[in-house]
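Give me structure tokens for this 403-residue protein.
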Amino acid sequence: MNPLLGSLQPYPFERLRALTRQITPNAAFEPISLGIGEPKHPTPSVVTDALIANLTGLASYPATSGEPALRTAIAQWITRRYGVAIDETRQVLPVNGSREALFALAQTVIDPTREGATVVCPNPFYQIYEGAALLAGARVAFVNSDPTRQFAADWASVPESTWARTQLLYVCSPGNPTGAVMPLAEWKTLFELSDQHGFVIASDECYSEIYFRDVPPLGSLEAAVQLGRSDFRRLVAFTSLSKRSNVPGMRSGFVAGDADILKAFLLYRTYHGSAMSPTVQAASIAAWNDEAHVIANREQYRQKFAQVTPLLATVMDVSLPDAGFYLWADVSNIARGDDDVAFALALIAQYNVSVLPGSLLAREVDGVNPGAGRIRLALVSEASDCLEAAKRIVAYANSLRSA
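Here you go.
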């Protein structure tokens, strides 16, 4: 067996399931889950119609690089969305969802024979980053977020010696779980560090199309062009249809950026056997070419957040994020001893509402777990369920305060 498998930590949802195994939820309430970030809005007909119309594609082996029509649709979407011109033949690859690509890129770009091979990632973080780094033979350096600066990662806290060993940096913007969007100044800092030390930046942007301001979130490719880096050197952006188009089961997305890295990535993927089904490619083309369903989807989230956020803010420290479909709520003022796990477990037991304890989404660094005392709420269900869950959480919080 690969000995590196022993270095993996249980996934947050596995840890939560183990913790809740002995808990009996209050049967007086219907269960509502705000724990898992799985889109629940209906899949748009433009996608399902394209799937049905292209079932003959199941009879063909797909090319790992994808059909030219799909790469064209992706490149055109990038141009419409970010105002960025991109070479669809060299700078774009379809992938089976951003999750598998985020993992696979680490296996492609990390050289474990180099002393102290390091991957840097924000903390809290999406656990795939850690697993990808460890299985590629690297160590992980976590960078805590600063809640006083809209959860920006404290890149200045990373020692020069760590940057010197860094081969890959994961960033997530809009962030999971914080919903924070990286500004241009932060991108400038990271690009300069990449130039100085030669590491690759993997930019996870799967929440980019769910936002609450008039101006859409800045993307990494867009930031690169604004800063005079139109060759996207040492930069790979990851985007998915899962959240944008409510098709998490379709497993479709793309990577775009540095042509030399994508050439090596394509070689890895050819051997890895990660080509996208022609049927899914056809449906993906339909999805990338249509914005009407995306606008409607975004409006549903805006309405839910407009109802739920002010209600929860009456009992806890929570505010509208920049983007994404999570609320990153501080419950330390009502959770005894900043115990977000105990808060979440009692909420299930008493009110049958599931949330994800923030400490399970982070690692302790220098004695600090930046997720401690927080919970992540995924507002993915229907608005009525999200609002009912919020009412129960408020009732639970008030019961703690009066105890």
